[in-house]
């Protein structure tokens, strides 16, 4: 079997950067990415046979852990009946019903293949519904790689230290207004100045693509209030948070259960209707967990807006592989398995992992802060983070350089962290005592590396 380095060399010769998504290339941490050959539960195995405790979780989908036997069986059963048909299948309806059952803010759903398509479609719908062009997003939030949403984006754009992307026409970029996250005053001022031109505000449920930066108390509710007042739509991007932080995603956690930074625990209610919610977005986008590890994402929301989509309405959207039968099978199996016990397991494992790592860092005198949004967390470095990181400027001002040695020491100790300080750590229900032991054994050395 070729080494990771040999595989990376071959890949780089034919694939730009050797990867199909930039952060995978280890650009900000250096070294050679591990080429994964298999994954099961909380572990991945690389081309050299090394087994790693995985905290990347396919960047979010692996809520149950990798290759859950019931999810794999559902995909195998679907595959045996044919791979794709370009015609409707019952699996799409069943998954749509499950999404709406969990998230009553969703009255209708359209499935696409990626989170990028979901947010792109949501923005187009908002423009179609309002007849307006401008879209407001927040610096450090990532909504996929469509032209209009890359400005000051988080995730790989933040990791690469980029302001946006080349190739985005100026005229397109000019339709996006970027505001600081968690800044209600900036939002109010923006709407006062240009409210009549704004089609939508798009925000992550909780920002988790500049590291985890939870919304300040009342921030999302205020977005809802201001957009409604000005006839604009609110798009809650739950591609990352949806079905991960709780059964009804971030919306369920915050608007229904009353999550706030001050009281970050919740009991997970399964809302039966929007009446239970303090605020309701017009549109929501989902990805990652909803596809159970297969290429599937969704846009959903109020029926009268969703029905503007073709073939009923004038807003065009389509996809050869949309609502793919294997992906809907994986998504449905995953959501059916994601019960209260799964969310409790993810929360408990996240808390244990974060506290083990945090204690190791403190023991080495490394100033840091664990930032939480439900069960999602990331570690930010430096004394400047002590009072909390509330926006992209503060997230970028941390001691980002500590992440690379920290990351590599963990990797040597058998633990795969996200290869960027700007990403959340993805824990699954399969992370148990054995994985915690590996993490605890690797943490002191990683903390020492971060201290240097
Ligand atoms: N929106 C959010 C909040 C995300 O975190 C991501 C991906 O990380 C996307 C959208 C884009 O999803 P995809 O990578 O499936 O296109």
From TrEMBL:
The keyword Ribonucleoprotein does not apply. The modification N6-(pyridoxal phosphate)lysine is found at residue 288. Its cofactor is pyridoxal 5'-phosphate. Pathway: Porphyrin-containing compound metabolism; protoporphyrin-IX biosynthesis; 5-aminolevulinate from L-glutamyl-tRNA(Glu): step 2/2. InterPro entries: 4pyrrol_synth_GluAld_NH2Trfase (IPR004639), Aminotrans_3 (IPR005814), PyrdxlP-dep_Trfase (IPR015424), PyrdxlP-dep_Trfase_major (IPR015421), PyrdxlP-dep_Trfase_small (IPR015422). Keywords: Cytoplasm, Isomerase, Porphyrin biosynthesis, Pyridoxal phosphate. HAMAP family: HemL_aminotrans_3 (MF_00375). This is Glutamate-1-semialdehyde 2,1-aminomutase.
């Amino acid at each position: 079997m070729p080494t990771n380095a040999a595989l990376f060399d071959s890949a780089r010769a034919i694939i730009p950067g050797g990867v199909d998504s930039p952060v995978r290339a280890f650009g900000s941490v250096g070294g050679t990415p591990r080429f994964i050959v298999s994954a099961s539960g909380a572990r991945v195995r690389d081309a050299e046979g090394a087994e790693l405790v995985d905290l990347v979780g396919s960047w979010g989908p692996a809520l149950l852990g990798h290759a859950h036997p019931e999810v794999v069986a559902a995909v195998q059963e679907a595959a045996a009946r044919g791979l794709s048909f370009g015609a409707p299948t019952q699996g799409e309806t069943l998954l749509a019903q499950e999404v709406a059952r969990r998230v009553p803010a969703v009255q209708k759903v359209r499935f696409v293949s990626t989170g990028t398509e979901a947010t792109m479609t949501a923005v187009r719908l908002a423009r179609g519904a309002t007849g307006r062009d401008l879209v407001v997003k927040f610096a450090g939030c990532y909504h996929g790689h469509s032209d209009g949403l890359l400005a000051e984006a988080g995730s790989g754009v933040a990791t690469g230290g980029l302001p946006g992307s080349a190739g985005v026409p100026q005229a397109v970029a000019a339709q996006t207004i970027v505001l600081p996250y968690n800044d209600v005053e900036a939002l109010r001022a923006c709407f006062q100045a240009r409210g009549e031109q704004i089609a939508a505000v798009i925000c992550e449920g909780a920002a988790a693509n500049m590291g985890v930066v939870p919304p300040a108390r009342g921030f999302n509710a205020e977005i809802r209030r201001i957009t409604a007042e000005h006839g604009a739509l609110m798009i809650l991007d739950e591609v990352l948070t949806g079905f991960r932080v709780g059964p009804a995603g971030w919306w369920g956690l915050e608007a229904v259960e009353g999550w706030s930074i001050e009281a970050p625990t919740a009991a997970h209610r399964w809302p039966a209707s929007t009446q239970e919610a303090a605020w309701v977005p017009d549109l929501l986008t989902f990805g990652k967990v909803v596809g159970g590890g297969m290429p599937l994402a969704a846009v959903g929301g109020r029926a009268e807006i969703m029905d503007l989509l073709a073939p009923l309405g004038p807003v065009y959207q389509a996809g050869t592989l949309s609502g793919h039968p294997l992906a809907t099978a994986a998504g449905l199996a995953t959501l059916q398995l994601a019960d209260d016990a799964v969310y409790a397991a993810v929360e408990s494992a996240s808390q244990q992992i974060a506290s083990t790592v945090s204690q190791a860092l403190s023991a080495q005198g490394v100033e840091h802060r664990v930032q939480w949004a439900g069960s999602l967390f990331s570690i930010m470095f430096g004394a400047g983070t002590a009072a909390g990181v509330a926006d992209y400027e503060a997230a970028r001002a941390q001691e980002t350089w500590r992440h690379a040695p920290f990351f590599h020491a963990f990797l040597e100790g058998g633990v795969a962290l996200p290869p960027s300080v700007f990403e959340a750590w993805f824990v699954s229900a399969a992370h148990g005592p054995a994985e915690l032991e590996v993490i605890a054994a690797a943490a002191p050395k990683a903390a020492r590396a971060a201290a240097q």
